[in-house]
Design goal:
The protein is of the alpha+beta class. It contains three helices and nine strands; from the N terminus they run αββββαβββββα. The strands form three sheets. Strands 4-1-7-6 form a four-stranded mixed β-sheet, with helices on both faces.
Length: 160
């Protein structure tokens, strides 16, 4: 896997445009992220094509969709992973980097099925399991904080 992330101007413009649209079209935005942990002390991470860094898989909760439905959908789309039992809610975090109205629900998934190997597509440049003590270069600070809170008992931050 490569550690380099595309940083094209058009990708940043698309990302800015989507966030601007969401800001004005929705009162509050809600996202979900999954901390998918396997039995070998590895966590599943993704690297997007449009924003730098390695992240926990997830995305926005759509109108009429439950948070767990969104998590299930996003894990299938971004990771090719199916959830085998109800995940545990690890926390709710305010994501001021997106907007003054954005919150992220983080769930821990320990029982799951890998449906197939996730191959790169228009949204996901790379994806895979990584040892939690050897995360890839470029893993975001928010991802590192969530893992420390869940796995090391660090105090829960209210912010993403």
């Amino acid at each position: 896997m490569s550690d380099s992330a595309p940083s094209s101007k058009s990708s940043r413009i698309v990302s800015w445009g989507l966030h601007t649209y969401w800001r004005f079209s929705r009162g509050m935005t809600l996202g979900v992220r999954g901390v998918v942990l396997d039995g070998q002390s590895r966590v599943f991470l993704i690297r997007h094509t449009y924003v730098p860094g390695w992240h926990l898989p997830g995305g926005g909760v759509e109108t009429g969709e439950t948070a767990l439905d969104a998590l299930t959908r996003e894990l299938r789309e971004e990771a090719c992973i199916a959830i085998d039992e109800t995940p545990v809610l690890a926390g709710v975090f305010f994501n001021r980097k997106i907007s003054r109205r954005d919150h992220v629900l983080v769930y821990v998934i320990r029982r799951f099925t890998v449906l197939e190997e996730k191959r790169p597509d228009r949204e996901i440049a790379e994806a895979g399991f990584f040892p939690v003590d050897r995360l890839p270069e470029g893993t975001t600070e928010a991802t590192r904080r969530r893992l420390a809170e869940i796995l090391e008992g660090q105090p829960l931050s209210p912010n993403w």
